[in-house]
């Protein structure tokens, strides 16, 4: 531990606030895993900082027969109730990654690189936070789902011999579509309660006029579409379904994705799926 702290000071010479400084147990665990070429996907509520470890513990007791009493400390979990608190948990984990990964790993070609550098670790946290508000509508559940998925794939790549930094890049590339998928904010409706709803409540939601864009979207929904064209390029769905593509770095093809009778995509750049001629439908 002393040698690792000296190496950290020599390379970065950084100190973090106690709220995002990883605990010694967390750093030691990740260091042992990195040395073995493994990684565990730790839930955000179990990512403990120095400040959290210094907080008072919760003591519980159980009365036993014969007047005996068993006292023990219950496991203290981090309260993750918002996207911000989840982000700070990821920051704590990123600092532990960089501290534990501050050693050189030799590749097959003879070159050496760090197991995990601080820049790559922090970039993952910042990207997760940015995508949550850009595509996930600030949903905590959306962030947690995509984060666990990405770190799960990262663990797989580490077991294949990748450095933690290289595994992070590969995992982010592989989960690109999941981080770009919008969060579903529709409320869950019980089918039984929906059948017993009074007709008077239906009048609270007026019918959408035919001139509204959503009426055109319903027509467009009847088209069969193509997701991928020859060569592996993907067609941009937000561009076609009326949401509009807001990603300045989008690599998908911005062309009409309606499936033609010959099985190929329309690929017209003059219109989208919403304005595709109805007589050209498959």
Number of helices: 12
Strand tally is 4
The largest sheet, given as strand count, sense and whether it forms a barrel, is: 2 strands, antiparallel
How many angstroms does the end-to-end distance come to?
Answer: 66 Å
Number of domains: 2
**SS strand fraction:** 5-15%
What shape does the CA trace take?
Answer: globular
**Average pLDDT over all residues:** 82
Spatial sequence of strands, sheet with the most strands: 1-2
Would you list the SSEs in sequence order as H and E?
A: HHHEEHEEHHHHHHHH
Task: Tell me what you see in this structure.
Helix content is 43%, strand content 6%. The protein is mostly helical. The chain has 2 domains: 2-54 and 76-180, no CATH class; 208-282, no CATH class. The strands form 2 sheets. A two-stranded antiparallel ribbon has the order 1-2. It has a two-stranded antiparallel sheet with strand order 3-4. Helix 6 (140-159) crosses helix 7 (164-174). The longest helix has 20 residues, at 140-159. The chain is globular. The protein starts with a helix and ends in a 42-residue tail after the last helix.
């Amino acid at each position: 531990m002393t040698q690792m702290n000296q190496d950290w000071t020599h390379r970065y010479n950084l100190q973090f606030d106690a709220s995002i400084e990883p605990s010694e147990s967390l750093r030691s665990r990740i260091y042992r895993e990195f040395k073995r070429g493994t990684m565990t996907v730790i839930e955000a509520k179990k990512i403990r900082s120095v400040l959290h470890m210094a907080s008072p513990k919760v003591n519980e007791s159980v009365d036993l027969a014969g007047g005996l009493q068993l006292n023990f400390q219950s496991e203290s979990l981090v309260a993750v109730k918002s996207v911000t608190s989840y982000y700070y948990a990821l920051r704590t984990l990123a600092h532990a990654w960089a501290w534990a990964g501050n050693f050189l790993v030799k590749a097959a070609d003879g070159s050496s690189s760090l197991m995990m550098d601080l820049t790559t670790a922090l970039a993952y946290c910042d990207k997760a936070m940015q995508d949550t508000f850009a595509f996930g509508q600030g949903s905590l559940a959306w962030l947690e789902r995509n984060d666990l998925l990405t770190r799960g794939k990262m663990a797989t790549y580490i077991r294949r011999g990748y450095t933690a930094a290289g595994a992070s890049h590969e995992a982010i590339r592989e989960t690109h579509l999941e981080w770009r998928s919008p969060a579903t904010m529709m409320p869950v409706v019980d089918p039984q309660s929906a059948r017993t709803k009074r007709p008077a409540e239906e009048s609270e939601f007026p019918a959408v006029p035919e001139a509204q864009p959503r009426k055109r979207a319903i027509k467009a929904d009847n088209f069969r579409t193509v997701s991928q064209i020859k060569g592996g390029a993907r067609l941009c769905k937000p561009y076609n379904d009326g949401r509009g593509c807001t990603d300045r770095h989008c690599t998908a093809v911005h062309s009409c994705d309606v499936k033609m009778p010959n099985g190929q995509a329309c690929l017209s750049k003059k219109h989208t799926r919403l304005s595709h001629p109805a007589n050209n439908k498959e």
